[in-house]
């Protein structure tokens, strides 16, 4: 469901997906990422479509290796790009949480029935949350305002979301991956009323105006970001280490899933029911 999306933008995204499909790949799902999916859009937010695809079996039987991404030029407000399923799985095995977020997006342009749920279930088994925490810690530190006295207010969201994701994992002893949207994160973490009020006010402001401007970082947010970062820094490093047996098992699960999908795609192309 894409309620509130520009019909022109949706049409253009779907045109690009058709163009990708015409190259011979099968799109497994295509979703909206970015600020619209995270829950803090502006009236002029870009449309960030991300998709996961799989190549036909013949593409696996040649010496030349195809690129594992499909990219389109960013034109106006529309940004569209996709990953090969193999790339998504290999990155997930390294603790990259991006594919898990895509699988959790509230906005879908198209998808093979049931695939996103099965994909998310697999990712829950192969991604080590303590390793994924590194991903969110990196985002937090990258987007942490350098000057709290004069910062671009809309950029605060890009530090808040990874901070809330880290807190979500910290509160669950790094045993679960966080949800994608800021609203669900706020529902599931314990934060004080003053901080929640400031965040809600900023979300409402961002949804209503094209430009939030510059200003001092609200004190509750400044304290919160520093506290979450400090708690993560204090986490024992051994928490994100896993034994070789677990590594092999996770790799086997991902590989089996990938092989099954390639075989299913080959059967579908041949008109065989599996």
Characterization of the model:
This protein is α+β, with helices and mostly antiparallel strands. It has two domains: 7-126 and 243-269, Beta Polymerase, domain 2, CATH 3.30.460; 130-240. It is built from eleven helices and seven strands. It has helices at 7-22, 34-38, 85-93, 98-103, 115-126, 129-143, 156-171, 182-188, 193-208, 219-233, 244-269, and strands at residues 26-33, 47-54, 69-71, 78-84, 108-111, 151-152, 214-215. The strands form two sheets. The chain has a five-stranded mixed sheet with strand order 3-4-2-1-5. Helix 5 runs antiparallel to helix 11 and helix 6 packs antiparallel against helix 7. The protein is globular, with a radius of gyration of 20 Å. The relative contact order is 0.13.
């Amino acid at each position: 469901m894409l309620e509130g999306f520009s019909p022109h933008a949706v049409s253009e995204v779907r045109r690009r997906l058709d163009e990708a499909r015409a190259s011979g790949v099968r799109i497994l799902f295509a979703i909206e990422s970015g600020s619209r999916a995270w829950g803090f859009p502006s009236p002029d937010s870009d449309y960030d479509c991300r998709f996961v695809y799989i190549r036909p079996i013949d593409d696996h039987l040649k010496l030349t290796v195809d690129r594992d991404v499909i990219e389109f030029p960013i034109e106006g407000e529309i940004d569209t790009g996709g990953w090969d399923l193999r790339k998504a799985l290999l990155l997930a095995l390294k603790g990259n949480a991006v594919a898990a977020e895509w699988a959790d997006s509230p906005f879908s342009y198209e998808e093979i029935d049931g695939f996103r749920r099965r994909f998310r279930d697999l990712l829950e088994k192969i991604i080590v949350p303590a390793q994924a925490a590194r991903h969110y810690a990196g985002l937090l530190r990258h987007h942490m305002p350098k000057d709290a006295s004069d910062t671009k207010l809309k950029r605060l969201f890009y530090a808040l979301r990874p901070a809330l994701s880290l807190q979500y994992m910290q509160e669950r002893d790094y045993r679960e991956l966080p949800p994608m949207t800021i609203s669900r994160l706020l529902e599931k973490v314990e934060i004080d009323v003053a901080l929640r009020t400031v965040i809600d006010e900023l979300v409402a402001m961002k949804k209503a105006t094209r430009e939030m401007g510059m200003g001092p970082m609200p004190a509750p947010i400044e304290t919160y970001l520093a506290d979450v970062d400090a708690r993560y820094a204090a986490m024992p490093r051994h928490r994100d280490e896993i034994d070789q047996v677990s590594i092999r098992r996770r790799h086997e699960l991902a590989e089996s899933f990938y092989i099954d999908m390639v075989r299913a795609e080959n059967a579908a192309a041949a008109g065989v029911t599996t």
